[in-house]
Design a protein that fits this description.
DNA-binding; homodimer; 8 helices; 165 residues; mainly alpha; Arc Repressor Mutant, subunit A
DNA sequence: TCCGGAAGTTGGTACATGACCAAAATATAT
DNA sequence: ATATATTTTGGTCATGTACCAACTTCCGGA
């Protein structure tokens, strides 16, 4: 952060960025920074309206609670969820935005698979296997190319501001 | 292997399978059994006409020769390549067939990415990241849906017998 | 209010993948 | 035949994702 090229942003242009946009830009990752399991956790939390318990996640993903406990701590360290020991798990604002992307990515990818003859359920499962390795940039291009569809196979697709850039 | 349901194949139908088909069927994996790095090795060996040296692979993938040496041993154990210590690396018949699939998968996936606006090089790199997690079944469906294209972006696509099934 | 069982955490282990280094072994080329 | 280049071996390490056992904390009922 020491050598930020401040000159790149002319003073007269600086205020054309609103705080929200700056936050968005800072938050935007390439979409490849989360491991597959963490992606599943975030999507699940977003889909179920978050505020889940460790045990619920453990049952849903058929893993030991201790496994969930540890991964949840990592997600909390990453600032994507909040979790006090023995407490509930819930998405932060940033985690929510990221989970929105993860769901959009999943649904876009599952959707295009159905265009190639995969059945709904099959497309969903297939997408789940590889989606973690598909970059945000690629997703946005596919999304734009499809005209930002709003209907996926396993849920509706919501488009955050910025995805069409 | 103890409890194979021999009854499932009626004696009068058994000989309708030729040895080649049986071999094919036995060899056909779901396409998800190789780690990303191993996939890269096999594709490279197939593309460069195999019979490579460890050092070449190490340079090409920018990793330590010792890393290559170990992974190569694993591929040899899996029966996909032959490799005597200090000798050349080359694909077995099975390895060649599998590498053909890996190349077809890569090129099919890169191809469809270009249909969504990704540039050639970009599509190739993107595909390389996630292709290891895309099943043979899905690839075959996409392939069939595209009418078994023969021209990919980073090479021609060859279709083994069986891919259109 | 206290207590016991349920829920969650911690610490340890395990396995796969894939990377590195240093040292030993082998091959090759002069 | 020996020096140099290549490869292998044996360690170590990091990441991701699991498990188990033991411990801690929480909560609801008597």
């Amino acid at each position: 952060m020491a050598d930020l090229p401040y000159e790149l942003v002319e003073p007269q242009n600086f205020f054309s960025f609103c705080a929200h946009c700056i936050l968005q830009m800072m938050m935007q990752s390439d979409g490849l920074d989360l491991s597959p399991r963490k992606v599943e956790y975030l999507k699940y939390l977003r889909e179920t309206g978050d505020c889940r318990k460790i045990g619920e996640l453990a049952v849903h993903f058929s893993v030991d609670p201790s496994t969930v406990s540890k991964v949840v701590q990592e997600l909390a360290s990453a600032g994507l969820i909040t979790h006090r020991p023995y407490g509930r798990v819930m998405l932060t604002r940033e985690g929510t935005l990221h989970a929105e992307f993860l769901l959009r990515r999943h649904r876009i990818l599952a959707l295009i698979l159905t265009h190639y003859g995969l059945k709904g359920e099959e497309a969903c499962q297939e997408a789940s296997r590889f989606e973690s390795y598909v970059s945000r940039g690629a997703v946005n291009k596919i999304c734009r190319s499809l005209g930002h569809p709003t209907k996926g196979i396993c849920g509706s697709i919501s488009h955050e501001p910025g995805c069409e850039l």
